[in-house]
Write the structure tokens for this entry.
Amino acid sequence: MKEHLVITGASGLVGRALLRNYLSRGCPVIALSRKPPVLPDLAPACLPLLSWHWGDVSLPGLGLDPATYVEVCDKARMVFHLAARTDFKDGTAASYLPVNLEGVKHVLALAREAQAPLHHVSTAFVCGDWPGEFQEGDLDLGQHFRNGYEESKFLGESFLHGVMAAASAPVPITIHRPGIVVERNPSAGSGKTFGPFLFLDAVARLRDSAGAKGVAEPPTLRVQGNRAAHLPLVFDDAVAEALVRLAANPESAGRVFQLVAPQEVGNSLLEDAFNEAFGQPAARFAGDEEFNGRPANPLDALLARKTTPYAAYLDLSVHFTRSNLDAIAGAEMLPTPNQAELALAFKAFLAARSQRSQQGRT
Ligand SMILES: NC(=O)c1ccc[n+]([C@@H]2O[C@H](COP(=O)([O-])OP(=O)(O)OC[C@H]3O[C@@H](n4cnc5c(N)ncnc54)[C@H](OP(=O)(O)O)[C@@H]3O)[C@@H](O)[C@H]2O)c1
């Protein structure tokens, strides 16, 4: 009987949240990734519902042995494709394509074999550097991309649109485009330092090293960015809940959902939450004019170097529409993270970071 949800990328930030959600509802899940998912907070009663197989989406058949492939297809009632190379290291798409494009093709083949609907997790940043409103129906607007990750995700999603446009799509396909996902409860084992957490980590490092050199009051570091700009932040558990709710509704098939909050999070609110987590003014945004008048000091420059991949995201004006999400899942789905929630997540990240470095010392 086809009861299982199949989730690729189950060991990642969003994958773990989706796993947690389905398992806590009592749904059996087959997780596919190269490393097993780590879920320290999972209720023991949920464990028998989870099976994990090593799988590499860049390989045909995901590199599964033929018997396991058949077993996965026999059991799958729905396939969520989350696996992706998500770093921003390379400027062009080529090195990402084996995972972020070929991987999509291999997972579609699995969904087709299983005759199971496919939920593909893309990203809102298929918009690239598009500066205005970006709607669910938009894809190729002639935009440029900030890095090879964005471009490769665009190519992966474009491939699926081609399949969906064909007269007879092999299985129902739904595209989900999350904004920037923030882990609500980061733990020492979370592993990924991404988005706002990269800034927290870099600032904490610089403050630690200033402290080690006997500097009692490290200066407030400056980050080149626009306080009036905003970011489409969403919490991981809210994205997982939206995916589960949308997947449960057959009307979601053939649609694109932008998994963003009703409002973007302003950079100034983000700065306040950041400093609340540190308990003092640790960092602030400063614009080009200020940096022109007072160039970066060595600490500002080090911070800029450690956070380079994200510099291009600190002056965003794009607005993502979410009419499909509102229509199918309701306007209360994926609420806007507020300052208190962000500060709590940031504090938890800093606590997890110190715990990791204590563990490293013992
Ligand atoms: N985080 C965000 O802010 C965000 C925003 C928008 C969209 N998304 C999308 O959401 C999805 C999940 O992102 P995430 O933040 O959870 O990423 P992540 O934490 O970096 O996790 C990536 C996942 O992909 C798996 N993976 C990578 N290469 C693989 C391969 N060759 N074969 C099989 N699995 C592979 C990793 O597992 P192993 O290393 O164990 O194989 C891991 O489970 C991605 O498609 C991403 O593009 C994320």
Notes: The radius of gyration is 21 Å. Residues 4-178 form a domain with the Rossmann fold fold (CATH 3.40.50.720). Residues 8-15, 33-35, 55-58, 82-86, 99, 121, 123, 153, 178, 180-181, 192, 195 surround NAP (CB under 6 Å).
